[in-house]
Structures are given as structure tokens and as C-alpha cells.
Specification:
This protein is an alpha/beta fold and 185 residues long. Helix content is 32%, strand content 25%. It is built from 5 helices and 7 strands. Strands 3-2-1-4-5-7-6 form a 7-stranded mixed sheet. Strand 1, helix 2 and strand 2 form a beta-alpha-beta unit. Helix 4 packs parallel to helix 5. It is globular. The model has no long low-confidence stretch (mean pLDDT 96).
Length: 185
């Protein structure tokens, strides 16, 4: 069991055919394609990344996997996702924080834009919607984003959202931290 398999297991149980999902950090397109497989042809996916390299990789993966027709890949900050979807229209949003796997490790997510994106995403989620945030940290990106987010989770309105922070207590190094946010009302 690792962060990816945990998040994917939760998504398999949650995302249904025809769902509208956002991959807030497209990266190499693996989660984007995975979401497409869950939503099927009736679904709709938006994928964001600030790096053109990630957009190109994601578009290529979607072409290879046959999902280009239901996905729009956008070269823009995930903090701007509210410009591309209506409030309370999205079923699921997925984030993988850190850097582009196989890319430049000096380019990585930062707390200010990530928190803005999470807040935009919470507005976009429909009631009962799910947000999965996998926090990768350490190495070149350090701990600033992780530390800021660990404090930020505590400030989210508990009357409107449930926030579950999970940790691998017996893993060495800097194991990723999966976070699940459910919009209650």
C-alpha cells in the first residue's frame, strides 16, 4: 500500500460514470487517464499544469489511452480552475503536490498557489464531492508547503467539509501524505 494505491482505491469507490473531475496537477497524465477510465465516455475531465512539458506529456498519454475526446488539458495554474468550471459542478478534484516526475525538480508546487487552488476547488465541488490531495515533499521542494498545508487543513470550515489527513506512521524518509476533503453541504 502506498499513497497512489490508497488514493486510487478511494477514487474507484467514489467516481462514477459520467462524473466531472479535475486533475489539478496533470504531471505525466497518469491520474488524468485514470479518472477518464472511471468516468467513461459520458464523463468530463479538466487537467491543469503550469509546465508546457507536463501538458504535452498528458495530452500524449490521453491520445495513447484513447481519452482525448473527454479531456481538456490547460496550461494554467490550478489556482485559476474557477475560471474553467461553475461552482458546485465538479464531482472530484485530484492534486499531486511536489514536482513533475522526470522533470525539473526546481519547479514545484508552493503553498500560496496550492491553498488558492484548494479554496477554488472547494467552491467548485458539488455537495458530496471529493478532493484528494497527495502531499509529496522533501528533497528540492523542502517542507514549507507541507507545513503550511498541515496548518491550513485545521482552518477549513468543519460545518461544510470533512478533512481526513492520513499518514504512513511506520515509513522512513518523507512518505507522501494523502488528504481527503469531502464537501458535506
Amino acid at each position: 500500500m502506498n499513497t497512489l494505491s490508497l488514493v486510487h482505491d478511494v477514487l474507484k469507490d467514489f467516481v462514477k460514470p459520467g462524473a466531472f473531475c479535475i486533475d489539478a496537477t496533470a504531471g505525466n497524465g497518469r491520474d488524468t487517464s485514470f479518472l477518464c477510465g472511471l468516468t467513461g465516455r459520458e464523463g468530463k475531465i479538466l487537467a491543469f499544469d503550469i509546465q508546457q512539458e507536463a501538458v504535452d506529456r498528458t495530452e500524449e498519454r490521453l491520445r495513447q489511452d484513447g481519452w482525448s475526446d473527454i479531456t481538456t488539458v490547460i496550461c494554467d495554474s490550478h489556482a485559476n480552475m474557477g475560471q474553467y468550471a461553475e461552482p458546485e459542478s465538479v464531482d472530484c478534484i485530484v492534486f499531486n503536490l511536489g514536482w513533475l516526475p522526470g522533470g525539473d525538480h526546481t519547479i514545484f508546487t508552493h503553498a500560496d498557489s496550492t491553498i488558492a487552488a484548494i479554496e477554488a476547488g472547494m467552491t467548485l465541488l458539488r455537495k458530496g464531492g471529493l478532493m484528494c490531495v497527495s502531499m509529496y515533499y522533501g528533497g528540492a521542494s523542502g517542507y514549507e508547503e507541507r507545513d503550511a498545508l498541515m496548518e491550513y487543513w485545521k482552518t477549513i470550515d468543519s460545518n461544510r467539509f470533512t478533512v481526513l489527513v492520513t499518514q504512513f506512521a511506520n515509513r522512513t524518509g518523507d512518505p507522501p501524505i494523502p488528504v481527503f476533503i469531502i464537501k458535506d453541504i
